[in-house]
Structures are given as structure tokens and as C-alpha cells.
Specification:
Radius of gyration of chain A: 14 Å
Shape of chain B: globular
Structural class of chain A: mainly beta
Helix content of chain A: under 10%
Strand content of chain A: over 45%
Low-confidence stretches of chain A: 1-6
Largest interface: A-B, 28 and 30 residues
Number of strands of chain B: 11
Mean pLDDT of chain B: 93
Shape of chain A: globular
Oligomer: heterodimer
Low-confidence stretches of chain B: none
Structural class of chain B: mainly beta
């Protein structure tokens, strides 16, 4: 199957601090990017998305930044809360096959109360 | 509004057997995708169906197959199970491409 990477990076942050989760995507032809959050025992949950004609998009407490030059995506979470503890996945897809979403390896975020 | 429902939640099968997993998408969603999630390989795309047609397929062997019914419900089948097929199988639905996918909680398959 197609996938990116085998190891799960981890990030620990203090409650109330801002979190930044980074992702390097694989395909320069990708033009749609999504961040998902997955809690233990649950399926991935959509957080925010961004298309390649944008470089920044904001949601509630979350911001996604896209740098197409270096194929880099980041998710910023403001005022991180214990409920934000989860594995975060970036995902990419192309205009020619939006139905085929390729996921990154994920980053485990642990919030310290 | 009900979410994506996957059944069964847990399943234990023996090597060589076959298994069928079921997915009921959100009402009105016509696109259904299947993913395999393992600790070693992460989330991998299996296939996607829209209006009973498979539109895209990942790099999995032919033992993995699926179908979609006229009510958009989908099933995936794995034949001749191998130990390495043990994984969390996730189903996701969407209105169509260009829309974000909503995932179910998955079926945890263990092959012994």
C-alpha cells in the first residue's frame, strides 16, 4: 500500500501553550490538504483543510500553513488543551484523484496539565 | 445526524478464512472510501466507491475487494486472510470529491 514513513513523532506541550505540528507531504502535484485528529479507539476526525491556491487558513483555535515551495504543511493549535491530546495526521490528494487521500505517518500530541 | 457506522466493531478470524466488513455512510453521502491502519504502515488507502462504481484503488493485493450498494452502503471483503491483515479498517464517507471525508470508528480485525 502507499504510505509515508513508519515512525510516529511525538510532541509534548504544556496546557495553555501553542502547539505546532509539522508535515512534509510527498507529491508536488497535490493540491488539497487536510488535517485529521485521531483519538484512541476512534476514527480520524476532520480538523481543517486548505487548497493549494492558499498559504494560510484559520479555524477555531487552529491555523494551517502551506508552503508549496518546500512541500511543507503545519498545524498550529492555540492555547492547547488536554482534550487536544491525540494523533494528528496530515493528508494530501490531487485534483485528478481527490477520492484517493494519502496520509502522513502522524504526530502524537501529548498535553501536560 | 448519524455518523458513519461500521460493523462489526471487533472481529477475530483464523488464517485462511475470509471476512466481510460493513460500512453505512452518512445519509446523502455517495462516496465511500476504505483505509487500512496499522502501527507499522499507518493509514493506507484501499479503494473508493461512488454510485456503486470503484473509482480508485490503492496498492493492495486482489484478496482485498469491495462493493457499494444502491443505498451507498459499502462492504469490503478480504479473502485468504494472512496474519499481516490484522489491522483497523476504516471507512469514510463524503458527498463527493472536493468535500472532506467523515470517518467511522473502524473495525478491528485480528487474524490468528
Amino acid at each position: 500500500g502507499e504510505s509515508v514513513g513508519l515512525h510516529l513523532p511525538t510532541l509534548s506541550v504544556q496546557e495553555g501553550d501553542n502547539s505546532i505540528i509539522n508535515c512534509a507531504y510527498s507529491n508536488s502535484a497535490s493540491d488539497y490538504f487536510i488535517w485529521y485528529k485521531q483519538e484512541s479507539g476512534k476514527g480520524p476526525q476532520f480538523i481543517i483543510d486548505i487548497r493549494s491556491n492558499m498559504d494560510k487558513r484559520q479555524g477555531q483555535r487552529v491555523t494551517v500553513l502551506l508552503n508549496k515551495t518546500v512541500k511543507h504543511l503545519s498545524l498550529q493549535i492555540a492555547a492547547t488543551q488536554p482534550g487536544d491530546s491525540a494523533v494528528y495526521f496530515c493528508a494530501e490528494s490531487m485534483k485528478t484523484s481527490y477520492d484517493k487521500v494519502i496520509f502522513g505517518p502522524g504526530t502524537s500530541l501529548s498535553v501536560i496539565p | 445526524k448519524a455518523g458513519v457506522t461500521q460493523t462489526p466493531r471487533y472481529l477475530i478470524k483464523t488464517r485462511g478464512q475470509q471476512v466481510t466488513l460493513s460500512c453505512s455512510p452518512i445519509s446523502g453521502h455517495r462516496s465511500v472510501s476504505w483505509y487500512q491502519q496499522t502501527p507499522g504502515q499507518g493509514l493506507q488507502f484501499l479503494f473508493e466507491y461512488f454510485s456503486e462504481t470503484q473509482r480508485n484503488k490503492g496498492n493492495f493485493p486482489g484478496r482485498f475487494s469491495g462493493r457499494q450498494f444502491s443505498n451507498s452502503r459499502s462492504e469490503m471483503n478480504v479473502s485468504t486472510l494472512e496474519l499481516g491483515d490484522s489491522a483497523l479498517y476504516l471507512c469514510a464517507s463524503s458527498l463527493d470529491i472536493n468535500y472532506g471525508y467523515t470517518f467511522g470508528s473502524g473495525t478491528r480485525l485480528t487474524v490468528v
